[in-house]
Design brief:
Elements (H helix, E strand, L loop, with lengths): L3 H7 L30 H8 L5 H15 L6 H6 L17 E6 L9 E5 L11 E10 L2 E6 L4 E6 L2 E2 L2 E2 L2 E2 L6 E5 L8 E7 L6 H11 L1 H7 L6 H10 L3 H20 L3
Antiparallel strand pairs: 1-10, 2-9, 3-4, 3-10, 4-5, 6-7, 8-9
């Protein structure tokens, strides 16, 4: 399977993946079906977050695959399938927040919305992409609907000196907006913000360590290759080797479940 280990760690149905131009999206075969992880779920969540969105998971997977390719134990990645399409040498520098506005009615324009704030993902915030609709439902009232999770609010505002008062967006506290001028009833926009993720793979090591025996008992054994993975996690002095051991154990255990073992 192309991108075999990455696909196992992602563990999402291939036919339901976003388009290829989505944030850090990589190829997943359409015929891959997610596996029920059982006790492995806590391990995966320590790496990729709980109820994380695709943007967050893709970003973390890019970090993880970069780590896996940084040691000689990448041979365990290619042993399952040597074919991969992701660029593990691609630099993963600080990703800046992005803001987008799309008019959903004929007169609604990008310039009608002025974003305020800097979208920074908080610790243990596993959703990077936020999407809302904004609709003028009265001369001084806007209805805002956050897509996932669903949350609706209506806010009144006053326009002064060419701009509206600051309007809060549901489901986030670090981004708001103003209307650029008065807006007619019925105008509607699609707003999106992608937050800047924080933290790195070193933080994943700390998250796994917190699980302790709960993770060790489900990941490792005295049977190879799990004993090698165990020794990497428990005994190696460098964090990238330790993380490789835990991640490879998760991938191989997921592969075993996929094969009914």
């Amino acid at each position: 399977m192309i991108n075999h280990v990455r696909t196992l760690l992602l563990n999402k149905n291939g036919a339901e993946r976003p388009a290829a131009d989505f944030f850090y999206e990589e190829y997943v075969q359409d015929d891959y079906h997610s596996v029920e992880l059982g006790r492995l779920t806590a391990v995966r969540e320590a790496l990729l977050g709980s109820n994380a969105d695709d943007a967050y998971i893709n970003y973390r997977l890019h970090q993880i695959m970069k780590v896996l390719h940084s040691t000689e134990y990448v041979s365990y990645v290619t042993a399952l399938d040597a074919r991969f399409t992701y660029d593990h040498e691609r630099a993963i520098t600080e990703v800046e927040p992005t803001y987008a506005v799309h008019g959903m009615t004929e007169t609604a324009a990008e310039g009608d919305i002025l974003f305020l704030g800097r979208a920074e993902a908080a610790e243990k915030e596993y959703r990077l992409l936020h999407v809302w609709t904004a609709e003028i439902v009265a001369a001084d009232t806007v209805r805002l609907i956050h897509k996932n999770p669903a949350e609706t609010s209506e806010q009144t505002y006053v326009v002064s000196s060419g701009v509206s008062e600051i309007i809060d967006l549901p489901s986030t506290t670090d981004v708001s907006f103003r209307f650029n001028g008065s807006q007619a009833v019925g105008k509607k926009w699609l707003l999106s913000v992608r937050k800047r993720p924080i933290g790195g793979p070193e933080d994943m090591v700390a998250s796994l360590a917190v699980l302790g025996e709960e993770a060790d008992s489900v990941l490792y054994s005295t049977v190879e290759p799990y004993d090698t993975f165990r020794r990497l996690w428990l005994q190696h002095p460098y964090w990238n080797y330790r993380l490789s051991g835990a991640v490879l154990a998760l991938a191989y255990r997921t592969e075993a479940l996929r094969n009914g073992e």
